[in-house]
Amino acid sequence: MLQAVTSANRESGDQPWVGRSIERVEDAALLAGRGRFIDDLGVAPGTLHATILRSPHAHADILSIDVDAAKSLPGVAAVLTGTDVKAVTTSLVVGVKAPVECWPIAMDRVRYVGEPVAIVVAIDRARAEDAAELINVEYRPRGAVVDPLGAIVSGAPVLHDGFPGNLASDRSFRYGDPEKAFAEAPHRFSIDIRYPRNSCTPIETYGVVASHDAGEDAFEVLANFQGPFSIHTVIARALKVPGNRLRLRTPPDSGGSFGVKQGVFPYIVLIAAAARITGRPVKWIEDRLEHLTASVSATNRATTLSAAVAADGKILALDWDQVEDCGAHLRAPEPATLYRMHGNLTGAYDIRNVKIRNRVVVTNKTPTGLNRGFGGPQVYFALERLVQRIAIGLRLDPLDVIKRNLIGAGSFPYRTATGALLDSGNYQEAVARAVEHGRLAELKARRDEARAQGRLYGIGFTAVVEPSVSNMGYITTVLTAAERRKAGPKNGAQATATVGLDPVGSVTVHVASVPQGQGHRTVLSQVVADVFGLAPKDIRVNTEIDTAKDAWSIASGNYASRFAAAVAGTAKIAAERVAGRLARIAASQLNVEAADIVFAKGFVASKRNPENRIAFSRVAALSHWSPGSLPDEAGQTIRETAFWTPPELTPPDEDDRINSSLCHGFIFDFCGVEIDRVTLGTRIDRYVTMHDCGTILHPGMVNGQIRGGFAQALGAALLEEYAYAEDGSFLTGTLADYLLPTTTEVPEPEIFHMETPSPFTPLGAKGVGEGNCMSTPVCLANAVADALGVADITLPLVPARLAELVRGAEPPPPAGGASAAAVRGGDRRLRGEGQTAVKGAPEQVWAMLLDPATLQSVIPGCQRVDKITETHFRADVTLGIGPVTGRYRADVELFDLDAPRTATLRGRATGALGFGNAEGRIMLAPDGNGGTTLTYSYDAAIGGKVASIGGRLLDGATRVIIGQFFTALARKAGGGGAEGAGFSLFALLAKLGSLFGGRR
Amino acid sequence: MTRLKADQRHAVRFSLNGKPVEDEAEPRMLLSDFLRHQLGATGTHVGCEHGVCGACTVVVDGMLTRSCLTLAAQVDGCELKTVEGLAPSADRLGVLQQAFRRNHALQCGFCTAGILMSLDHYLSRHPTPSEAEIRDLLSGHICRCTGYTPIIQAALEAAAELTSSKKETSNA
Ligand code: FES
Ligand code: FES
Fold first, then answer.
1. Does the domain spanning A427-469+662-805 belong to CATH 3.30.365.10?
2. Which of A6, A497, A828, B21 supports an S-S bond with A570, CB 3.0-4.6 Å?
């Protein structure tokens, strides 16, 4: 069922523009192909293009980097390694106090797959990529850790000496008297959660264009960065210039962000450094593989949550133990994901006793950063799964447990145990309306009917509080009170907005909100049109940011759902200030009191006598044309910049209570899902989502945010995971591996609204963009748990995982033959064995195997073979697996030679696209007819790009190649001659070394 | 078959939205890059460069084509239609585009060009599609912003409007 939300544009009347779904001013250009995204904009003549060579290893020392061949390629301007970057920058700041550095490029060690190792700058992108292929990096692999709990066991490989035991932070908190509550409560419930890694991955990737003026030592950067502009200070510091020498601008359009484009900032440092070193502007556009592998992701988290519970389901205390995995570096603003929700760890519930232990660990995965929902999905998955478990444990209805614990309607503003000040709401009313309008009773009947027919059908519930407008000081909760005293207070969230009037009286608005598709320009035109009595089309809005010219603060940018609540309100304040002055001017012209002035329908008029009026544009232009004849107290009306920071956003107090966000919307969701008994695919039958986000400024856009968040959350629940192998190889490097929801999976959610205005924001609005990313994953999980009757649910709910829950783990397939099979899920080592008959005596076959000329002629894609010693070969091979064709250097050594009977081979293949290791044993035996029986076994593993991109294809590709290999062998050997008879031990090993592997 | 030299630029000529265009390209240059960076037709976007997201979809000789999986040299002599060719004039939007705007079927607009091309192509051949057919057609496009349902609504509305206006014209 589709709910039509068509625009209401044309009706006239005196209703305000705010609250109407007018058509977006952004759309005409975007629909006609005239958007101006970063890669659509031209660059200065002579601009160079960068490409980045990245680590195929999760953890390794860099022994050497040979860039000579790359540098000498025509068109290449520079090849930069860590040393070159270090010469012109300093380390990025790290968010906790510890002796660690955080560079945007590997120095002498790589710590995650995809970490930049070298930057090639050339006259075009293709040439830069050609040159990157020619760089030879020698690595010495180290042990890798990918699991947050595995990272903190003793003996685990350590990533940074400054984080002993991989622990970057360990803080405990206590609010109320949790020990007493747990001791006295009749029930205790507990849940262990592993929240997976995923990302809202925008469809436009990162882009940066940077230049450097050596004369003034000043940088100019254009990037599709989204803020927060606190990061501007991090970038400037890394580039070793004061903030006024880093001019950071954003393009007019940005192709989505959802937090993710905050993560472009390390690349701003790298590309700016490249511009400084080459003395030319440098442009870099990220590709999709880079984006999935190494841009940024949400944190994965291991949580144990316990609750002390009364017999009626009332939660008396919570005990949180959260282990946050921030990947290989603790990049600013992390560990913010963990602390963003600190004031909201009791969710929508009235729980006065809370105990928390927060640990932040580093692992050999991509560093984390902002992602829609930011800490919310991780927290609510644990909390709302636990609420369902409490209901089951006490034989109560889950909805009753939710209702029993909701904060009372009369208690707002409500201070949570951990310090948040919940501004407004009526949660009971919202639940009641959702239950009625969403037809819960009927949904339950559907469930009963489905179950009666033996179908797997379940219902899930969630209640969440959606925080918005972050307190810039919440992250300091990671420091102790003493450390905070030393560092000085951090708090607030300055929003800025500028309203300007030009000499013909037309209105321009500028804000530093950096939208990525949310239609800020349209909403601001509504807000300001209402103040001036104009129509939105009369207001021109600019949302690009230029830190050299615009009003901005560290809080500027597009994150924490702050637009409607903070930025739009600030624009209103700026417009009202201008309107106040215009009113005085108009009053003097119309000979009335300023209090009698009204702005309506393009005129400034007397309320009492509407005929007594003057055109808005005339009054508005006076400050330009005749400032001398304006009443003194009116001041100028050319430009007004308003700044607004809510007083409620105070720093953490001595007891670690923190009002982490200004506004708190409420969401209540429920859904019915059916799981197919055969495919174990999850189908959403109905999804009901009730929102109270305060005053709604533009219903169409609010629903757009809800639908978009819902679709992303559905992906997180059912499909998406940034998957890593145990050795840290990244396995989901294409959109065919990292599955995003499409039209076939996403239904229309049934959206309901209630409006309880926020008393803390100028327009009464609250944020709305992130809520479903918090509520929907756990709501679907609760429904699936209900359908299957299982206690433990781990996302994403892919059919294979549900199959394990329902049918138990799948037994490993029988080994043997030439077919390669992964031994078990998560183990990428491939083992196999086989046997074949070859014509020709063992001695002949043996000699062929050791002859480089023969090898070169029979190995497909082989450019050359060098014999280093009698038993050591090196070769250049070009291999293609699915979409990935690349050059590899293979190195094979033979051991335990017993000519002409047995040999052990150890091989390694490395290339820009990945690496492989293999070990094999070959046995030759006379078959009694003058031929040879050849038996082999192997054990191989691969990593790097091939694993990220080609993972799905490897099993199949392997089988095909082995099949072809033996066909060729049989054919050639069939001729009987030793010369050219094609079995090649080397070829087999080179293939195995570079190919074998499998996913999951 | 003509053989192109890998390290040389070759002339590529085709018709783009009804107008002849010509430039040079290395054999390895993708059509998406050729359109965007050589011809300045930046309305076609690139989201994945491996054929999954659909952002780069254009019409080549009447066939929906992923321009990121097509070489510029392959379309020499062909007729291409891109998003820039959809609107009746620079200051007006077509029926489908208007339906998108009315229904808030775009947010960032990065995916939109590809989706419009698929729909424009499909609706001209299937004037009365069902919701299921539209969902099926668009399953080859990824949109990260909208949650898809406004897009489907816009497509159905546009289809209805296009057929009724056609009926009116034929009745007249
Ligand atoms: S860019 Fe062509 S399909 Fe994604
Ligand atoms: S509108 Fe942003 S990806 Fe579709």
1. yes
2. A497
